[in-house]
Automatic annotation (TrEMBL), chain A:
This is histidine kinase. Residues 247-515 form the Histidine kinase domain. GO terms for biological process: cytokinin-activated signaling pathway. Keywords: Cytokinin signaling pathway, Kinase, Membrane, Phosphoprotein, Transferase, Transmembrane, Transmembrane helix, Two-component regulatory system. It comes from the Eukaryota. The lineage of its organism: Eukaryota, Viridiplantae, Streptophyta, Embryophyta, Tracheophyta. Its EC number is 2.7.13.3. Residues 817-956 form the Response regulatory domain. Residues 788-808 are annotated as: Disordered. The modification 4-aspartylphosphate is found at residue 887. Residues 788-804 have a biased composition (Polar residues).
Automatic annotation (TrEMBL), chain B:
InterPro entries: AHP1-5/YPD1, HPT_dom_sf, Sig_transdc_His_kin_Hpt_dom. This is Histidine-containing phosphotransfer protein. Pfam families: Hpt. Functions as a two-component phosphorelay mediators between cytokinin sensor histidine kinases and response regulators (B-type ARRs). Plays an important role in propagating cytokinin signal transduction through the multistep His-to-Asp phosphorelay. Functions as a positive regulator of the cytokinin signaling pathway. May play a regulatory role in salt and drought tolerance during plant development. The keyword Cytoplasm applies. Histidine-containing phosphotransfer domain (HPt) contains an active histidine that mediates the phosphotransfer. Residues 38-143 form the HPt domain. The modification Phosphohistidine is found at residue 79. Keywords: Cytokinin signaling pathway, Cytoplasm, Nucleus, Phosphoprotein, Two-component regulatory system.
Amino acid sequence: MVYGDVIPCSPQQIGSQWFQDALNGKSRYASWGVGWNKARDQMLFFTAPVARSGVISIGIAMKDLVDNIFRVNLRGGHLYVATEDGHVIAETGPPHTRYVLGNNTVSIHVMDKSDTLPLEKHDNFSCQLDNPEGTGSDPSHTNYLSIWGKRYNFGCAHLDVSGIRMVYVIAFPCKEVIPLVHKMKIVVVSLLSLMILGVIVGSSIMLQLLRRSRIQEAFLYASLIKQKEAIQQAERKSMNKSLAFASASHDVRTSLGGITGLVELCRLDATPNSKLDRHLEQMSTCASQLLGIVNSVLDTSKVEAGKMQLEEVEFDMAQVLEESADIFHFVALKKGLEVIWDPCDCSVLRCSNVKGDCRRLKQILDNLLGNAVKFTSEGHVVVRAWAKKPSLENFKLSSNHEFRFPSILSHLTRCLWKNETNMEILNPVQRGPDSVEFIFEVEDTGKGIPKEKRASVFENYVQVKEKTTGEHEGTGLGLGIVQSFVRLMGGEISIKEKDPGERGTCFRFNIFLKSSDASLDGEENTNSQLHPRNTSVASTQLAGKNVTAQSKIRAMTFKRGLQMEGIHSLLLIQGETKEIMQRWMESLGVKVWAIDHHKLLYPSLEKIKNSLCASAKPDSVSRKNSLSRTTSLNYNKENEGCSSSVDVADQTLPLTTKERLKKLSFSGLPTYILIVIDLSSGNMSEICSILKNFTSSIHNIQCKIVWLASFNTPAADLSSSNQEKCDLVLQKPLHGSRLYALLKLLQEFGGTNVDDPQGIQIMNTMQERQQSIELGSSMDDKTLLSNSFASQSSQHTNKTSGSRYSMDDDTPLSGMNILLAEDMPILSKVAKHTLSRLGATVEHAENGRDAVDLVTKALRGTSDKHNGTAQPQGDLKPLPYDIILMDCEMPIMNGYEATRKIREEENYYGFHIPIIALTAHATPEEERKSISAGMDFHLTKPLKTLIEMAVQFVILHLMEGLLVL
Amino acid sequence: MAPTALQEKLNGLVNSMFAEGLLDEQFQQLQMLQDGSNPGFVAEVVTLFCEDSERILAELTKLMDQAVVDYSKVDAYVHQLKGSSSSVGAQNVKLACIQFRQFCEDNNKEGCMRALNVVKHEYYHLRSKFETMLHLENRIQAYETKQQS
């Protein structure tokens, strides 16, 4: 497109040089010039030769170019464009500025306000491009100048516009560009700083977290270490504990052994049959029990591991039962309970020699008894035991049970029985030919065990208890062990259902043990009486003091029963003992009158007398009834004599037996009365006087009185009982060996009975309802037997009467009359006190003469009495003083002289009072002197310990015996 | 003070007396003899002992002060003192008495004088202890009776 007009003109009109150049192509293609039109506008010319003769020149008005340039948005910048020859093409400022172009340089002149005088001159900005190739790119250098208070950024560059060399200078006001950059910078910096900050914060947080986790980790480590230490410590501890346990149990065993040994030693010193002796015996039993417990604790784990082995030792079942019952009797005494062993049918006594694990059995019994005592606050605890020979009948029974099993499932008791029989079947090993089944029952009157808890009772560590009563200690291991043991012995333990009205619990268990009595089996099996030969063998064995033989004898005693016809027994005992005694005696065929209050004593004695008088007449019916009748008196029914009668024997005895009994009862008519009285029954003096009257009122009747003492019986009562007629004093609890003693006493009636034409031996097994009578055993055997028993029992009575002084060990001198001759008040006081503590009655003489006077007076008194009455038995001379303790050095008359005087005096009467010299100087001469003066013994002052006194007493006693002999 | 504290104090005193050798096991026997039936037994015996000893000591002093000492009399008194002291378990007094008798046998006046002084010293020492003991016992008993009532 062509704007403008084409103006042809001749070369003459225009400068020839330019034309020539253009024509020759010498000139550049473009050039700056002043237009040809009249306005002489600045223009750019592009010239080209046309056909060697003409030149075409196209001019473009500079104005258009400048306009174009100005159209570029310079963002507040200024632009100066000029040709290199200095023709300014475009200039926009900055104001008051003049550019002067040099050779490749630009000078900027800052002018004053009128643009006339240059104020400043900034020279020689280089316009050389860094990169000569590039055109139109960055200005070579940027220079900062400040013009009129404004900072400008100058840039200068060459520009080649189609051959026309131009220079442009750009000035940007810094003010406008830099803030942008600044802004950018600030943003960037702030962003950067933010980022840095963020990084810092983040890293610090991270650090914090890291540190925290580190700390946590450290804590964890620490606690882990602690835990580990604790574990190690615990392990160490448990190891130490087990070690210590082992050694401790060893130590305990050792020390227990020591205790037992020492107790045995003490027993040697103790007076036999005395209270001390009994206590020591109890102590040794307790100690061995403790040993057993220690072992049992160790055994618990063994049981659980199933490693428990049963021992097999021969032992006496009766003894075991008695020991256990005795121990718990003491324990229970404190609570006011009664622990008693009910002999039942005496089957245990008859086959008490068994082989088995006695320790475990004891443990079972002790556990059950201990529990019973622990959980019972009033009433009694009864141990029952009976032996059963497992026979074919049992098998039949058990199979029957099994058959009927579903129908009786609901019934708990039956169920338990069924289990038991099942157990029996499961344990055929236990049922050897010589095995005996023992069934035990431990019954108490405690609060009982609720039904729902019965199952858990036998679990280890379980204690059935009410929440309100937390006072019962214990581990809850007891019954668990018991159950394990019972099962080991082939039995089963269960809680027996009690009658609805009854309180308390009843544990029943059965065990199988091997019997070591060979004779028993034969007898039991053939259902015959004991063979005469057995008896003789047994009684000969008695001499050997064999324990087995003794218990055999005992078994036979119980087996033999009694010639009980005509024996009446009156029991004045309280509590369960009475019931059991009554049952036992009735089972022996004794007519029992049981009362429980001393006020009833007199009326019942009268009744006995009356009934005896009545029975003296040949009234067959009353005799028979008297045998089988149980008479019990209650305090409330004082006026009513015989309240109930149960004909047990009538129902069970075969007719022939009854007839025989009837026949026998009329033949001899000897009547014996055995009176058993509990010393704690109450008014002793009243009882004594009643008894005195009674014994004096009957003449042709043998009457024996047995006193029942308990450990808390006052000594006074004991001594007063001694003054009365006394055949036997038994210590509570009344069972076992004490029953045996009683039985022997009963048998003495028969043994001493010469009127008895024929020996009648009743074997009594109440529970099995089997009674058989052996008649006509040869006379020889019987006498032998009765002799042996007579001798034994006479020994026994000797012992009891001999231990008159030693009945109560606290007062071994009780009943002794002692004269103490001592001048010094302190010594006499101490000695007097010591002696009276030991139970002696002490008379005191201040000096020798006093002593002599007292003795003479006493001697005269007794001799007077003697003259009046006939001399009693020759052995017991009533000495005026049992002992005289004589001080040797006294004022007025010394001990030696006094002794001589006394000896003279007593010689006259035929006495010899033991005189003991008390001297302060324990020299041999002194002793010789005292002996020569007629003294019997010599003691050194001061009278020392009680033990010494007791020892001295024993010596005295021996001496006394010698003197009497 | 509580009776238990008193009792402890008393026990401590008695134990210290045992430890010092003032008393021997005879005193323990006396204590054993004391029971509920006669609570003041020990006190009684101790009082008796003190009275007796003081009398004997007075006599002894009188005898020793004389120009011509009757050694047989002295010996008899010392013997008595020895007897009573041994019966309460006053060990030191007893030992001193034994020494005294030795001097008596030798008719050694100077020794006897010395021995008498030793005996006196021992006795007074013991008496002061006994007094404290009895005082304590009295307090305990008074407390007990008060409680009972």
